[in-house]
Every structure is written in C-alpha cells, then in structure tokens.
C-alpha cells in the first residue's frame, strides 16, 4: 500500500486527481462548496510569496487555500 | 394586476456580477441597512415595471446554504421567513456547474427560482456555448441569459420576474437524487409531519434534508417552534447514525456530493467548450501580481496609491470643505446668545461644543468618500483576494488574516492613517476571530491625530535625536499590534468562530464608474447617518464631564472683582475723550464683539482687495466703532484704542484662567487627580491625566487641553516652551512613557462607534476602550518606573524598549494557537 499523498505536499506545476476529503464539518463543507470534489483534476499554480497559502486551479477557476487546509485533501498525482 | 407589490430576492455566489444586476435593475433607488444582529449589509432597492412596483433584496453572495457563515444564515432566513415571490439566482455563466450547486439548494426551499446566466459575454470569450433552452428544460425553471455590464438582457429578466411572480412555475423543478439517502429523507419527512405542524409553514423535504445534514440552525428552529423537539431530534440522530454506519460516510458529505453530481449531470449536456481555453488574461495578470518578488512590490504600490489618494489627497480636499463646516459653525454662533465679558452662556458653550464635535467628524467625509471609492474599485477588480493571498502567512501567525492588510494600512501602519476607515474596512474578513482581532488592534496604529502630541514631545525632549525618535514612534506601533493581537487571539477571542481560509480568486474585472461611485456614496451616507447620532449623544456626556461642577461662587466672585477692576480702569483711561458715551454700559460689550469679529474676519483675508471690502463693511455697520478699531491719526481714538487693547487682553487672560480652572474643577479634572496614585508609576501628573482623558473625544484635543492647562503668560510663547517651563521636573523618560501611552491610547469617539458597528456589540466597544488603557498604563509604567530604577536616559530607555518589543513580537510569531474546526 502506498502512502496517501495530500494536496499540501504538491509543488507548483503539478496536476493531480482528488481522491477524497478527510475533513468534516466546516472545513470539509467549505471545500465542497468551493467545488473541491473527489474525482476532479486539480493543478497547483503557485505558492504565495511567503510559501503559504497556495493557489490551485480546478475546473477553470482558481482557489487559494492554506497548506494546513490542503492537508485534508487527499490526492493522487497525475503522471505525465 | 394594478399596483401589486412584489418582493424579489437576488441570490448567487460571490463574484458572479450579482451587484451589477442589482444596480441595473434598481438604478439609484437603493437603501442599505444591516440585518438584525449581524454585520451583514442588507441592500434593498425597487423598480417599476408596467404598473407593478418590484422590491429587490440583494442577498449576500454565498457558495452554499449551510449555516456555517452569517451570510449563509441571513440568506436562508430571508428566503424562509420573508417568502419572496421569486428568487433570481444570478450566476457566472462560465462556472455553470459550481453555480448550479447553489441553485439546487435554492430550489429545495420550494420557492420559484429564475436562473439568470450572467456574464454570457465572458463565457463566449472563453469559447463556451450554453444551450439555455435545454438547461431550462432539464432544470424545470426559466433561464434568462444576460450580459449586464454590456447592457444586455435587463428587460428580459424583468419580464421573466413578472411572469413567474404572477403565474408561478409552469413546470416541476428538477430534484437532486440523494441516492442511498432518499429513504432516510422520506422517513425524516414523515416524522416531521407526524410530530409537528412545521409543514404548514416550511418546506418539509428541505427540513428533512437539512436535518440529515445535521444543520445546527434547523435543529435550533425545531427546538424553538415545536414541543416535540426532543423526540424528533433524537429520532433524527438515530437516522444519521444508521446512515453513517451503512454508508461509511458522513451524511453532509454525501449530500454535497449528490448535489454536485446533479449539477454536473445537468451542466454537461448543456455546455459545449469549443477549444481548450488558452491562458486567460487573469492568469497572465496573476503571474505578475502573485509573483514571489513582483507581487509584494505591486501590492506596496497599490496600497501606497490608495493611502496617497485617500489620506493625503483627502486631507487636501478638507482644506476646501472645512470652510463650509466653519461657516455652519459661525451661523450657529450668530444665532446663539452672545457671550458677556467673562460669562459665556451655557447654551452657547453647549451648542458650539456640539457643532464642533459633529464637525470634527464630518470633516473626514472627503477622505471617506475617496477611500470607499478606492475600496469599491479594488473589490470589483478582484484584487482583494490576491492581497490576502500575499499577506496571509505573516498575519495568520499573529491571529490576523490575509484580509487584515487593507484595514491596517488605512489605520496607519507607519504614521498617519485613520482608525475609523480602518475599522470600517474590516467587514470583509470572513473569519470572526481574525476580524475581531483586527478591529481591536487598529486603534493602536498611528493615526494622524496622535501625531501632534508626538511632535510636541519629541521637539521638547528628544530634540537632538528627532530622526531616531520619529523612527521609533513610527515603527513601534507595529511591534505592539502583532503581539497584542496574538495575545487577544489566545485569550478573549479564543472561543470565537474561525472560518477556513479557502477562498476563490476570481477573474479580474474592470470596475464600472457607476458601480464604484454608487457604492462609495451609499457607504458614506450610511456612515453619516449611523455615526452622527451617536456622536451627538456622547458629546453631551463629555461636555457635562468637562463643564461641571465648574467654578465655585467664591472664585467666581473673585473673577467678577477682577472684571470690574479692569472695566473701571478702562473707563478712567478714556475719560475726557469724545468716546465715553459711545462705550457706556452695554455698548462696551457691543464694541468688544465688534472688535473680535473684525479681527476674526481679517485673520482669514488673503488679498488686499478682500481686506478693503471688510473694512468697508465694518465701517458701514458702525463708523464710530470702526474709528476705534482703526484709529488712524486721530489722537483721541488712538488713546481709546490702546485702552481697549489692554481691556481685551485682560479679558482673554481672565477667560483663559477660568477655562483652566473649570477643567480643574470638572468631573474630568477630579478624575485626573484621583488617578494620580495609579498613573504616578507612569510619570503622569494630574494635568497630563486630564489632557489624556479629554483626548478621548478626539486625540487632537490632547495638545489643545495641555495648551489650556499651561496658562499663557505671553500670547506669543509657544506651547513647547510653556510646557517645558510648566513641567520643569519632566524628563525625556516621562515624555517617552507619555508617547507610548498615546500609541496604545483607546480609540477616539468616532472609532469607538465604528468598532460598535463592525463588531455588532457594545460589549466589544467597551472592551476596545478598556484594554488599551490598561495596557498603556502597564507599558508606560514599565518604561518610567523601570527606566528610573535602571537609571536609563530617555534615549536608552527607548532603545531598550524597542528591542524588548521586537523580541516579544518575534517570539509571539512562534507560538502556535490551538486550532478549532478541522478534525
């Protein structure tokens, strides 16, 4: 079994597929409301000048979130 | 239909152009208020379509309809309790799928929904084609495409609103298939109907779905409105448990996923994407604006421009608006009973005080107008989230938020800001804890009004090291703000709601002039309406505190004696001149007013022509008096003129002394003295205490009060030398302690009210006023007593304190707060 990768570990430029969300309650709901759903592809655009938060692109729009929040987004890196 | 009234609610996700739609529909017929109990703005407007007057309520932008944020709660409650005739769901056509996620939640509330596909032009530019007929068919609600910024689709939308409001929906709206949860929802629905009568008032299926989601606000509603709530909620919990066990997933996640799938199912067949969109303009702008190096530089540029336009240029404009306010004051002053030789009628003193207090606030309006316009521009352009993106890392370490950047710049991150707009701009911070922390620390930044006292003290006590002292005072406030914010976050704000940072970075837009100016005007108007009433109330209180009990009868008698002596010697001086009769009895007072008016008018003169005009005006009004004001070569007139000068000087001397004595004998004066045992550790004597207490109305007045307290011996002597003479045992250490107290000084009246508006509670306002006083006293005492014990000079103490503050700030950055929320 491989180690579960989470979104916060990805570097800018990487594409990945969301496999799950491990946050419940407010954060989980918020991620879902912003369109972060399992099954979608997501691309890390960049980190902020001070490394945190990160900017990602999903379905053609762009979202920023803190690494600490990205920790709850389980992903599978897309091979290219 | 006659003159039916319709209520239409406008709902949609943020950044979908909803406010543009609102503005296009209602034009200038708008009204802003707050929803009760929260700081969310409620925008209402209306328009006439045919015979029908349609009221439009612009609900706050929300991504979803859970009960996690005040915006979402407000939106939901409005739809649930106010039952609008139609909800227009405005959406960004290029984000159809994500927007439909909200549409389904609106439709679940069983109100007629019209889908307004806005920004169709943008979607087309991105190579998207949307089949609106198919979309309307599969959703079962009317779909109206618009491109409001291009002026397209407004009448279609108005027609659709009228049609739906009149006839209701002709088809059955689509429903989300909740798959495995469907039987659970039916069971809950059945239990709700069996146990309560809520079905008569609310959509039962919606209640059931929300209960399965575990929505706290709906549980609360059930508790409030029904007797059987305990049993019902118990059963709901059981259903939730069963579902969780059977599906191995949290019910609310399941619900969201089903909605999203439904949105996808509807959107996919309706949208054709002609080609994979190229890199959009927004992406290219982001590459610069969010760049590691260029980003921060660009941000500093934007903030500097904002600061320059509003604070610097705004102050320039006040030079032109102030005369208007001063003119109003003169008008009031003319109506009020005139003052006597030494007795100023109470009504006069009171109303002038009132006008001064209100004027001091109205004076800020040009600044606010420019500022609100700039903020509206930044909001509409989409830059705000980028700024938060850049600064969040730094600020979040101290319990603040990326979005605290703008408020802090306005408050005066270096020197010269204003806390009122700073606090007012905290509104956008989504995280309750960070928002309150930001509101509470902004008054500690260096607003313009604190500067006169700094300059005064630095000029007297740090004259050889002015540069260093100015650097110290400009940067120390940041070193105070960050640790204090951290401290507040870890203590009093510990239990406040936090919100995830997750935030959309919308595509850039070019704001419209109308949108920007309209919003700026609205906000200025809201500010004036809310603030002036409260300022008037508080000004009355402070007036009483400064005026009473006042000068005792014995002392008053002494002043009377001095007055009579002065008047008597004046008459002796002028005996034998031809002017005796002109100045007898009450005509003397008329002469004094004439003299003062003349002086006042002459003071503001800029050109010789103006001066001549004033001369002529006064000569026409009273030629005899005028010959005394400007005696020319007439010997007799000159003699009287000299006597008058002496008399007027004596009168102002008397008034000055009386003013100082009145403050001394006022409640505030007593308080100043009573506080000495406490403030002696900080090195403050009662005079300083009174000045500081009086500064609460407006910090500018600290210097003015000190001016009144250090009575003038010679009119030309500057306050610097008067103070230096009056406080001979005052050292630079005293001055440093006083300056640090001023840095931490409680918010002024106007700011206190802004705090109340933005925090939504009087309690926080009082806290915002109380804690800086305590903190200021502790810090000032530390500097003064500590510095004295260690035998430090003012400059040494300054350096020592700076290093201490720097060390604490850095250390505070490394403390990790307990996070709530994510599990």
Topology, please?
The complex is a heterodimer of chains A (80) and B (823).
Chain A: E1 5-6, E2 15-21, H1 25-33, E3 41-47, E4 54-58, E5 61-65, H2 67-70, E6 73-77
Antiparallel strand pairs in A: 1-6, 2-3, 2-6, 3-4, 4-5
Chain B: E1 5-12, H1 18-26, E2 30-34, E3 41-49, E4 52-58, H2 70-82, E5 86-92, H3 96-108, E6 113-118, H4 120-125, E7 128-130, H5 132-139, E8 143-145, H6 154-167, H7 182-195, H8 204-213, H9 216-225, H10 229-247, H11 251-270, E9 271-273, H12 281-289, H13 294-335, H14 346-362, H15 365-381, H16 384-396, H17 405-412, H18 419-424, H19 432-441, H20 451-461, H21 466-490, E10 503-505, H22 513-547, H23 553-574, H24 587-603, H25 608-621, H26 623-629, H27 635-664, H28 667-674, H29 676-679, H30 686-694, H31 700-709, H32 719-726, H33 732-743, H34 749-759, H35 762-790, H36 794-814
Parallel strand pairs in B: 1-4, 1-5, 5-6, 6-8
Antiparallel strand pairs in B: 2-3, 3-4, 7-9
Helix pairs in contact in B: 3-11, 5-11, 7-8, 7-10, 13-14, 13-15, 14-22, 15-22, 19-21, 20-21, 20-32, 20-33, 21-36, 22-34, 23-27, 24-25, 25-26, 28-30, 30-31, 33-35, 33-36, 34-35
